[in-house]
Amino acid sequence: MRLDTTFPRNPKLLALLSEKDGYRAALAYLCMLSYSGEQGTDGFIPREALPFVHARHADVTRLVTHGFVYPQPGGWLIHGWDEFQESNDETKKRRIRAQSAAQARWNGHEPLSDAARQRKSRGQRHDAQAR
To answer: Are 50 and 24 in contact (CB under 8 A)?
Structure first.
């Protein structure tokens, strides 16, 4: 999940923070971003997830008013998710590429026992002293 570095000075955020309980709603928004990233919901926050994002209906109403989320059947959609975040499919593809690259780096490297590692280390020291 990515967070824009200009988020703290975003005019929508500043307007939200000027309201009573605006800080609470702002925290709920950040938790919604995290929830969606963790759960792979592509920006959708189901109504049942409110306790997990530390939000009340009043907080979500503030977020809707300020354009952070939009009502959807069964929950809310985070504004701009598809513009600023990778889709769940893109995230999965990136993870697979990273795992494949890591596997390629480790191919041919057999794990050594402690005794084999010590023999190898002694051999390398002996070779270095002989030079």
So the answer is: no
Look at residue 70 and give its three-state secondary structure. Answer: strand
Tokens standing for residue 79 = 């504004």
Instruction: Calculate Rg over the CA atoms of the chain.
Output: 24
- The one-letter amino acid at 76: W
The token pair at 98 is 């990273």
The tens digit of pLDDT for each residue in 33-68 reads: 999 999 989 899 999 999 999 999 999 999 999 999
Q: Which two tokens stand for residue 118?
A: 């010590």
Q: How many CA atoms lie within 13 A of 119 on its CB side?
A: 5
Strand bridging mode 44-46 / 69-72: unpaired
Separation between Cα atoms, residue 34 and residue 53, nearest integer Å: 8
| Distance separating alpha carbons of residues 113 and 82, to the nearest angstrom | 48
Measured over the CA atoms of residue 14, residue 18, residue 23 and residue 29, the dihedral's sign is negative
